[in-house]
Amino acid sequence: MQIEKLIEEKKIKLTSARKELLELFLKAQRPLSYEDVKDKIKMDKATFYRNVSKFEEESIVNSFESNDKKRYYGIYVSAHAHFICQVCSSIECVKSITNMQLEGYKIQDVILKGVCKQCNQRNNPPSS
Amino acid sequence: MQIEKLIEEKKIKLTSARKELLELFLKAQRPLSYEDVKDKIKMDKATFYRNVSKFEEESIVNSFESNDKKRYYGIYVSAHAHFICQVCSSIECVKSITNMQLEGYKIQDVILKGVCKQCNQRNNPPSS
DNA sequence: GACTTAATTGCAACTTAGTTGCATTTGCAT
DNA sequence: ATGCAAATGCAACTAAGTTGCAATTAAGTC
Fold first, then answer.
1. Residues 6+ apart with CB under 8 A from A120
2. What is the rounded end-to-end Cα distance, in angstroms, of chain A?
3. Best A66, A80, A113 residue to mutate vs chain B (most B CBs within 10 Å)
4. What is the structure's pLDDT at B96?
5. What is the pLDDT of residues B71-113, one digit of tens each?
6. Which tops the pLDDT comparison, B128 or B63?
7. Which of B56, B67, B102 is best to mutate for the A interface (most A CBs within 10 A)?
8. What is the pLDDT along chain A (128 residues), one digit of tens a residue?
9. All domains of chain A in start order, with CATH
10. B86, B71, B74: which is closest to B28 by C-alpha?
């Protein structure tokens, strides 16, 4: 996927900040918070939040609140759920859960919370 | 359901603040934030947060972050999903979605985001 | 390529949900 | 009733996210 593809047809400028940000989101393959981003690229938080907000308006990224009080942003790729681990706070994309229906409602996002595979095994090792 | 039932067997005191809080949660039938609570009962926010945190430890309530940056708390009643409307920020309990499974993971909570019935109808009225 | 202008940026000050330290109060067991 | 740990209210704090503003930059026009 190309950065230019994401931006073209949208009514926003392709600045260097936006290019860096979108490249990072594409590379990450999982939603990122400002905390995650600021270690990788030098960018003021105001710029970050204004840009992800604009990306969201343009349906380039979507976002959700996690359990750690932070908001996570990721490139919008077809409908898929997110799993948030309540033990280690990790976030994973879940491709297998899709097209959920609820009469009269429009479902745009599904968030699952619980204990992830790693933390589950750590607490209940299969060979003990 | 009785307040005393919720507290008994747990290692916490039944103070008047806790009684009021649990009564409110039981009456509300939907998750509440501190904002919701503070209009109904006089209670310092430190007391609120310390108590809901204790209730959560004792599995009396559970909680989740909504889209409005606030955390919502409700009496824990069997597994059910929550629907958060991205338009009007309302929160509803969804009893119909239950026992979701994901190999290797433990799912403790399901949050659906989208457009609720009311907002859906407002934008796409059936008779027009 | 230089010119123009609106959009974008960084900075610093601000907002607000939630947390923490501490002195006072309260529930509850003896 | 007494003693004491747990709970409360207050005020000060923390940190994610927002906003106003002056300086900078992308991108269209000549």
1. B104, B105, B106
2. 45
3. A113
4. 77
5. 999 998 777 889 999 888 889 888 877 778 888 899 988 999 9
6. B63
7. B102
8. 577 777 777 778 999 999 999 999 999 989 999 999 999 999 999 999 999 999 999 989 999 999 899 999 999 877 788 999 988 889 988 887 777 888 889 998 899 999 999 998 877 665 54
9. 1-77 (1.10.10.10), 78-128 (3.30.1490.190)
10. B74
Q: If phi over 0 gives left and psi between -120 and 50 gives alpha, with beta otherwise, what is residue B68?
A: alpha
Residue B23 touches partner A, C-beta closer than 8 Å? no
Among A97, A108, A120, beta carbon nearest to B106: A120
Give A-chain residues touching B66 at CB under 8 angstroms.
65
Look at B120 and A111 and tell me if their CB atoms are within 8 Å: no
Q: How confident is the model at residue B122 (pLDDT cuts 50, 70, 90)?
A: confident
Q: From A107, which residue of chain B is nearest by alpha-carbon distance? A: B114
Number of other CB atoms surrounding residue B102 within 10 Å: 16
Using C1' positions and the CA of A33, the closest nucleotide is D16
Beta carbons of A117 and B105 less than 8 angstroms apart: yes
Q: Would you give the end-to-end CA distance of chain B in angstroms?
A: 45
Percentages helix, strand, coil for chain B, rounded to the nearest 5? 35, 25, 40
- Nearest nt to the CA of A71 via C1' is D16
The alpha carbon of residue B60 is apart from the nearest alpha carbon of chain A, in Å, by 17
Chain A, 74 to 103: residues with Cβ < 8 Å from chain B are 83, 86, 94, 96-97, 100, 102
